[in-house]
Amino acid sequence: MPRSKEFHEWLDEWSSHLTEQELQDIFSLRERGRLERWLDRHNHKMELLRTLGSAIAAITGVLVFLKLFNFI
């Protein structure tokens, strides 16, 4: 769905009131702390652990369900 012309005009008018410093604050790459850099480096490993943990929880839930109703 395309945006309306009025929306673009409003956005242009709104953004014209931003100062140069506010624009730099919005779009600048701020210095990251040690913890944030470490988390960024290990992001894929954490995603894998979350996925494996969820899979183990789902399998365990199914096994408990089957044991509860005497299917095992």
Domain count: 1
| Sequence of secondary-structure elements | HHHH
Cα separation of the termini = 52 Å
Helix content: over 70%
Major sheet description: none
Uncertain runs: none
Secondary-structure-based class equals mainly alpha
Description:
The chain has helices at 5-15, 20-27, 34-41, 43-68. By secondary structure, it is mainly α. The protein has one domain (5-68). The longest helix has 26 residues, at 43-68.
Summarize the structure.
It is built from four helices and no strands. The chain is mainly alpha-helical and 72 residues long.
Task: Record keyword descriptors for this entry.
72 residues
Chart the SSEs and their pairings.
Elements (H helix, E strand, L loop, with lengths): L4 H11 L4 H8 L6 H8 L1 H26 L4
